[in-house]
Design goal:
The complex is a heterodimer.
Chain A lengths: L5 H9 L3 H4 L3 E5 L3 E5 L1 E7 L3 E6 L3 E14 L3 E13 L1
Antiparallel strand pairs in A: 1-2, 2-6, 3-4, 4-5, 5-6
Chain B lengths: L6 E7 L3 H10 L4 E6 L4 E7 L3 H11 L2 E8 H11 L1 H17 L5 E5 L3 H17 L9 H11 L3 E9 L2 E8 L15 E2 L4 E10 L1 E2 L6 E2 L4 E4 L1 E3 L5 E3 L3 E16 L2 E19 L2 E6 L8 E9 L8 E17 L2 H19 L4 E13 L2 E15 L1
Parallel strand pairs in B: 5-7
Antiparallel strand pairs in B: 1-3, 1-4, 2-3, 6-7, 8-12, 9-11, 9-15, 10-12, 13-14, 15-21, 16-17, 16-19, 18-19, 20-21
Classes of the chains: A mainly beta, B alpha+beta.
Chain lengths: ~90, ~375
């Protein structure tokens, strides 16, 4: 699955250094889906909480009826009712 | 793009499923629609082309897995391979239809004369045989010409190719034996009143068209026809006419009826006769305005030895009583009566298509009407 990486496009446009954001990008779509790029591993997967490890930290996605729609080597797409995204 | 790919649904049983999922993804195998059925059972989709790689991983890690099915292009191919028999049958059927669509095997002749239709059918059958039954070789205009030249009684012929059929419509010439200059032929007339529903004329001249109203005795098919030279010819009218008619009967309900009741006052006349001759006669004066009488005759002698007859006439005084009859009480009886009367009027050759009742007011009282809608088939 080869995707057009629009984060790179934005970074290039805003001249943001790649090292300063840790190579991970998060997009929430209408609180019904979340797309995270730059993941390392899935640590927990439950219907109300999915914990994802990215390079330097961990992200908790809280919500309801959460579902791993797509999991690739570097990205994950979670669908469901997104209630919160917490960086820990 | 996902919908164009082929996917395989995998079911895994075992512990540390999250860890396994991460391991799979790290091996560059994309995972879709992950579903945890229980703590030890998980289902997910992978691209079908990565199945071999995944199987290798499972083998190395000794993981129990099960392939549930395929979707996408791979799924369709799998379905096709599983139902190869049905697909081959359908293909054969399509090929069969396509091949046979190029041939004409059946002949349908529309003609009023059965003998002629049989002869034409045989003749056209021979023609088709010569053309090897090939649709492309069969020329309908040639068939029309051949029929027209080889059959004397044909007045008009048309042939068309319809599917695997050759449909031939033939109009026959009027039989000379059936035409005459004598004017003793009578036209076909209507025996009922109604609207013309359909008309089919085999011989003669139609005088009515569909939708026309006809009365009893109106001419439906005339006996006069004109030949190609404009001469008047007389023929026996032949045809079928369907007439839609309404046959009804009405019964009127009177709200007040006069009935006669006995008052209880009586008067008697007695008479004794022997062989029809009055011997004794006792008569009383009858002063009643209205009365009814009952007469009883008794033979006095036993075993008819003496024919003595004693007759007694009793006169009962009557009075007029006005009785109010509620319509609702007698409605069903009136309807039944109207229905019976209307049914008796329905002709024998009629088919009842509908029936209904009407109730309306008139100056005489309520009128109950029962109507039969009939289709009368007049064949001449």
């Amino acid at each position: 699955m080869h995707r057009f990486n629009f984060f790179s496009e934005i970074r290039r446009e805003l001249k943001i250094d790649t090292n300063s954001i840790g190579d991970s990008q998060i997009v929430i779509m209408g609180f019904s889906a979340i797309y995270i790029e730059g993941i390392v591993a899935i640590q927990k997967c439950e219907s109300d909480n999915i914990r994802i490890k990215i390079k330097k930290t961990t992200i908790d996605v809280n919500g309801d009826k959460l579902f791993l729609k797509e999991l690739t080597k570097t990205s994950v797409l979670i669908s469901g009712k997104i209630e919160g995204v917490i960086k820990s | 793009m996902k919908s164009l790919n082929s996917f395989t649904r995998i079911k895994i049983e075992g512990l540390n499923q999250i860890k396994l999922l991460t391991f799979i993804k790290n091996n560059d195998i994309d995972v879709f629609n992950v579903q945890f059925l229980s703590k030890s059972v998980m289902e997910f989709d992978i691209n079908s082309n990565k199945l071999k790689k995944l199987k290798k991983i499972f083998k190395n890690k000794s993981i129990n897995y099960q392939i549930l099915g395929n979707t996408g292009v791979c799924g369709i191919l799998y379905l096709l391979l599983n139902n190869i028999g049905i697909i081959i049958s359908i293909l054969f059927f399509i090929i069969f239809v396509l091949i046979f669509n190029n041939f004409l095997f059946n002949i349908k002749v529309q003609c009023s004369d059965d003998v002629m239709s049989h002869n034409v059918e045989e003749y056209v059958g021979e023609y088709l045989k010569q053309s090897n039954y090939l649709k492309s070789k069969v020329d309908t205009s040639e068939i029309e010409k051949l029929i027209y030249t080889n059959f004397d009684k044909v007045s008009l012929v048309s042939a068309i190719k319809k599917g695997g059929f050759v449909v031939i419509d033939i109009k026959q010439m009027l039989d000379n034996n059936e035409t005459t200059t004598e004017e003793n032929f009578t036209p076909a007339t209507s025996s009922v009143r109604g609207y013309v529903q359909s008309i089919q004329v085999f011989q003669g001249m139609p005088q009515v068209k569909v939708g026309d109203f006809v009365d009893v005795g109106d001419v439906l098919i005339s006996q006069i026809v004109y030949d190609s030279k404009g001469n008047k010819q007389f023929v026996v009218p032949k045809g079928k006419v369907e007439i839609k008619c309404y046959i009804d009967d009405c019964v009127t309900h009177c709200p007040s009826q006069i009935i006669f009741e006995r008052t209880g006052k009586t008067a008697e006349n007695c008479n004794l006769s022997f062989l029809g001759i009055n011997i004794s006669n006792q008569q009383s004066d009858i002063t009643f305005d209205k009365f009814e009488s009952e007469t009883k005759e008794t033979i006095i002698s036993q075993n008819n030895i003496l024919p003595l007859v004693y007759s007694k006439t009793i006169f009962y005084e009557l009075k007029e009583v006005v009785l109010n009859v509620n319509f609702d009480d007698v409605k069903n009886d009136l309807l039944k009566k109207a229905k019976q009367n209307a049914y008796q009027k329905v002709p024998n050759n009629a088919i009842i298509t509908n029936e209904h009742e009407n109730i309306y007011d008139s100056h005489e009282g309520k009128v109950v009407q029962y109507v039969y809608e009939c289709l009368v088939n007049c064949s001449f």
